[in-house]
Amino acid sequence: MAEGSRGDTACGGMGGRQDPVSSSGSCNFPEYELPELNTRAFHVGAFGELWRGRLRREGDLSLKEPQESALPGSHGVADWGQEDAAVARDLGCSLEAAAELRTVCGVDKLKCLEEGEDPDVVPENTDLVTLGVRKRLLEQREETITIDRVCRQETFAYEMESHAIGKKPENPADMIEEGELILSVNILYPVIFHKHKEHKPYQTMLVLGSQKLTELRDSICCVSDLQIGGEFSSTPDQAPEHISKDLYKSAFFYFEGTFYNDKRYPECRDLSRTIIEWSESHDRGYGKFQTAKMEDFTFNDLYIKLGFPYLYCHQGDCEHVVVITDIRLAHRDDCLDRTLYPLLIKKHWLWTRKCFVCKMYTARWVTNNDSFAPEDPCFFCDVCFRMLHYDSEGNKLGEFLAYPYVDPGTFN
Q1: With pLDDT > 70 as the criterion, what percentage of the chain qualifies?
Q2: For 123, which of 86, 136, 144, 285 is 20 to 30 Å away at the CA?
Q3: Whole-model pTM?
Q4: Cis bond upstream, residue 342 (ω within 30)
């Protein structure tokens, strides 16, 4: 289906960067390829140009705060008369009906709180069942002084989404430009996390259309990047020299038939080469894949499908599904400091793996072939690990293999 949706030259492969897509091409608009699942492939930069071409009125793309005269409810009597006349003309109704519509359907009617009411307090006389349930849960939490998992996740998610809303840069040069595109990118778990791999986004980020793919690549946090190689049972106090991210810097994104490889460092390898050779070895019907340097392309240069699963691969075989779910123009209520993008707005809250002995602290070590452990592998916090496996002088007791353990909950 991907190949069929890009048959014409306006939507062809890597040509989007050198040969901008015509604004009249149907592929510039994200029509659905599979209903309610994903769109057809379209060129991000050309789609942004179409959008900006339609929004030509003064203030349509402005990121400045509106003047007081432009705010709802600030109209004078003459302004209301002109607005009523325009509504009556558009709807084909009388001026009296237009005035009644303004009164009944005005913005002021959307306000749900009276003057002085606290939005954090659920009213007593609510008829909404869900609001009543929430009120009982809040009262129960106050009585027991406990915060359940749902409350923690809810609070955490709200803080993540709201911490940068409307934030402006201290340096005016860091202000994002009017008409800038913002894409919502969901990073899913590696495939080893079978419990959540299909439906739980690991991270949700906002990226700017003008940002390079490498900026998204550098902002993705994965526990496999923090792994420490080697066996440390004989030298538990030895500080590791490197983590995996320092040693294995190769990575790629896959979007619409093209592998975008990270080639910024001399030690970077082309991880996509094996896949391309496998695809071409027996003519498996995938078409001809292309490769490009990740650092040379921005999101505006890409062809994408909204809602379609793409791929991010690093550390050789750690694979994340990447789904771009939304594309829109920047608004004055967005974070306007481009230095904060890619902006993390959602992160899955994880249970941490506790020490097998104390059941209190997060595991720091994992052992194999351990005569002191009831299971293999077994996880220990640093204190319990040393108390159980070493004497008072730090000498190793028994035979076992010990490896540093990095818990996925590190990123909570």
Answers
A1: 78
A2: 144
A3: 0.71
A4: yes
Q: Rounded distance, CA 324 to CA 194, Å? A: 21
Contact indicator for 402, 236 with CB cutoff of 8 Å = yes
Residue 27: both structure tokens together: 């592929």
**Position 61: which residue type?**
L
Kindly tell me the burial class for residue 24, based on how many C-beta atoms sit within 10 Å of its own C-beta (0-12, 13-18, 19 or more): exposed
- Is residue 28 domain-resident? yes
**Number of helices and strands in the chain (H, E):** 10, 15
In a domain, 142, yes or no: no
Q: pLDDT by residue (tens digit) across 171-214?
A: 889 888 888 999 999 998 776 555 555 566 778 899 999 999 99
Contact indicator for 329, 181 with CB cutoff of 8 Å: yes
Query: pLDDT tens digit string along 93-142?
Result: 888 888 888 888 877 777 666 666 777 777 777 778 888 888 888 787 77
Clarify whether residues 175 and 248 are in a common domain: yes
Assigned domain for 52 exists: no
Q: How many domains does the chain have?
A: 4
Q: Are residues 249 and 328 in the same domain?
A: yes
Domain around 379: 365-411
DSSP state of 223: G
Domain identity same for 16 and 86: no
SS3 34: strand
Pair 385, 239 in one domain: no
What CA–CA distance (Å, rounded) separates 202 from 348? 5
* Position 138 in a domain: no
> Can you read off the two tokens belonging to residue 100?
């009644």
